[in-house]
Structure prediction request, 404 residues.
Amino acid sequence: MVAMDAKQPDLTRDKLLRAAFGEIHRQGFQAASIANILADTGFTKGALYHHFPTKQALGLAVIEEVIYGYLDGLIFKALGESDRPVETLLEIISISGAQTDRESICLGCPLNNLMQEMSPLDEAFKDCLNAILINWKGAVEQALLRGKEQRVIRSDVDCGAAALFVVSAWEGCVGTAKNLQSAEAYGLCMLQLHGFVSSLMI
Amino acid sequence: MVAMDAKQPDLTRDKLLRAAFGEIHRQGFQAASIANILADTGFTKGALYHHFPTKQALGLAVIEEVIYGYLDGLIFKALGESDRPVETLLEIISISGAQTDRESICLGCPLNNLMQEMSPLDEAFKDCLNAILINWKGAVEQALLRGKEQRVIRSDVDCGAAALFVVSAWEGCVGTAKNLQSAEAYGLCMLQLHGFVSSLMI
DNA sequence: ACCATTACATACCGAACGGTATGGATGTGT
DNA sequence: ACACATCCATACCGTTCGGTATGTAATGGT
Prediction:
């Protein structure tokens, strides 16, 4: 064994986590089968229940690590680090609407899927998911507020409400596109959202 | 027995259907327990499986009869029969945003819940739900088109895309409000949607 | 009045589920 | 080299699930 960038146990945990994410993304959390996750990874129950005490803990770990990590890398950081946040927001919306592949469309947003399924049933899930949702809304709100300072967003805009709506509509667009199984519908829908954000500008 | 407005079997079917709707609305379809539905109604499996061949058929009946009936009575008919459809659309959005009770917020839109959960898993569900979604979108689109004729909607508006976005954002607002468990957030969000529709007007 | 169909109740089935108890292998610090 | 915790595999458990087979009471047409 010459080199091993990560320790074996962590690798196992990662594989389980990724497989769990896929299974949950496809089936939803409740319908997600532990047996399927194990079959995908080749591990057994001993491994899984060593790293995660319950199925719920596994689900929460998927949310906090995989899902949050994805959105953070794709949206939150980009908005926070941009010098022209409004422009960046519009770009993200445009790009997402244009180049989201069919499979992602059909499976929907992992965050939204879990929110719709689990929030009324499990408080831990609700809190965990809401934290991400509020983070998302906050990132958009900060982008709009900074846009105000830069005089590209109208001064009469309620940035908090607008940000909440942008995130809501965003999720809504993913949701309907998922049902229609149409990337084209998603593009059309996101174009309207683009128009809404533009309408907030000077 | 002096009078009986409905036949006994139909009454049984209705009770089962309503109980099934409630259970599905609370738990989702897959997690909805046949046993719970039977416990709620006092019937047994013999009754349920006499009226519905499978759980899937029960779910589809809930969609086609209960859910569609609800949306049709609340939205589709109102839009179709109105002389000033755009005004009516804005009214529905305003009223919905203002007076939706907390319980409805927390459980979310039954249509959206089922779409997110079932569309990728079951084609029959997908088709059934999409039919309602397209109906909804069509009703809004017709309202906007008639608004164009009445010269209250700008002539450059893409009514199809706008209608798709309105429905998407609508569902999105319900979704986020459901997670935040906040009727106030729903009101704020729907106010923004109201603003979007208004921005389509002359 | 008779018979067939409808409308339910009861008891039961196989499968899949999440979770656990136990045991062995593999490092790891001392 | 020894003790010990970490890591994972195997076998098993109780429960719940959707669905079915069978039986029986009510109903409705003739």
